[in-house]
Amino acid sequence: MAQLLSDDLADQIVTTARTATGDSLRSVTYFSRSDFEQLYLREDLERDADLNTFVGHEWRGFRDTRNAYQSSELGEYKFTVRAFTNGYLLRVTGERSGVLITTDGLQMQSYEEIADALEKMLDEDPTRD
Predict the structure, then answer these.
(1) DSSP, residue by residue, 80-96
(2) I need a labelling partner for 89 at 20 to 30 A (CA). Which of 1, 42, 102, 111 fits?
(3) Is 129 part of any domain?
(4) Is residue 14 situated within a structural domain?
């Protein structure tokens, strides 16, 4: 199986997420249009999530969101934060790949900082097509 991203980039993504969120970090998943790799899962969480469906929905959601708001007066779409009963999801997506981070609650500024750092990493990813 081909490696989706370099070990260095995977480590950078997880380190960035861990540094910004501390013990609030639940999981980190890198994804492309056709595949995904879970880079981190907190020890106290179950490993039974249906990531295939989840990632597929988030990829389609990114495309729909970006297309729907491309001429918005709010400016360019940057990232998505979703709230759930047991945590939050941050989706940062570029043209060919993205990162999903799940957390316990954080301040909105923390999500913005993580999103900015991840966006830069995705833009500089040498393994992308």
Answers:
(1) EEEEETTEEEEEEE-SS
(2) 1
(3) no
(4) yes
